[in-house]
Write a structure and sequence with these properties.
- With about 210 residues, the protein is α+β, with helices and mostly antiparallel strands.
- Strand 6 and strand 7 form a beta hairpin.
- The protein has four helices and ten strands, in the order βββββαβββααββα.
- Helices cover about 30% and strands about 30% of the residues.
- Strands 1-10-9-3-2 form a five-stranded antiparallel beta sheet. The protein has a five-stranded mixed beta sheet with strand order 5-4-8-6-7, with helices on both faces.
- It starts with 13 loop residues before the first strand and ends with a helix.
- It has two domains: about 5-45 and about 160-210, no CATH class; about 50-155, no CATH class.
- It has helices spanning about 75-80, 125-130, 140-155, 180-210; strands spanning about 15, 30-35, 35-45, 60, 70, 85-95, 100-105, 115-120, 160-170, 175-180.
């Protein structure tokens, strides 16, 4: 588990071969022609909540109007946790203006942003997560993971998650995959989609050679 924790932000692909969810062309953010196929990159309108993953930290928030983490608590409860010596924590800030964005460093806008809560983990739990990788453990690394978890959750609440559909030149669906988070996720989706198109071409050529 320790190796997994070196990166907080992740992509979780949900892939479909030979079938697809209903998608709308108007939602495309990019269209690519590759190896006789059309690749369509578009927002994922049904993503998995990353707080359902095997996370290291717990996000507490005090807002009663928005879901900004794992658990709504009072400001006093948040303050109490920040005073404990047996936890590692980071502040969580929210910018709310026609949407929600979260981070651990704060925003420059003083009107639509502020501290919404914290993300924290007990030190014993953090140390246990690095079992077998003790040489890699440090509280700074733990904070980096917590920061990544907030970034990933922010991408979820702001709709910054994508997927791809691969089609033949005639519009027949051959492959699709969803759950790519953020800008890096888009690049990963494009790379995966190109690979899927290449695989389809290779398979067709092998079948043609066998039949020939």
């Amino acid at each position: 588990m320790g190796a997994r924790l070196l990166s907080g932000s992740r992509s979780l692909g949900r892939c479909f071969l030979g079938k697809t969810r209903r998608v709308r062309t108007m939602n495309e953010i990019e269209r690519i022609e590759h190896n006789g196929h059309i690749i369509r990159i578009m927002p994922d309108d049904d993503p998995m909540n990353p707080r359902e993953w095997d996370n290291l930290g717990t996000i507490l928030y005090s807002s009663s109007r928005y879901v900004l983490g794992d658990k709504e608590v009072s400001v006093d409860e948040i303050e109490e946790i920040t005073q404990r010596d047996d936890v590692i924590w980071l502040p969580v800030y929210a910018y709310i203006h026609s949407g929600v964005v979260l981070n651990t460093g704060g925003f420059s806008c003083p009107w639509d942003s502020g501290m919404s809560g914290i993300i924290y983990v007990e030190k014993k739990a953090a140390e246990a997560a690095w079992a077998g990788f003790e040489d890699d453990y440090s509280e700074d690394r733990v904070r980096k993971v917590l920061q990544g978890e907030v970034e990933t959750f922010s991408q979820y609440v702001s709709g910054d998650i994508y997927g791809y559909v691969v089609e033949t030149a005639t519009g027949e669906h051959v492959n699709s995959c969803w759950g790519f988070f953020g800008h890096e996720g888009v690049k990963e989706a494009i790379s995966d989609a190109r690979g899927a198109a290449d695989w389809e071409v290779t398979q067709a050529e092998q079948i043609a050679n066998q039949n020939g």
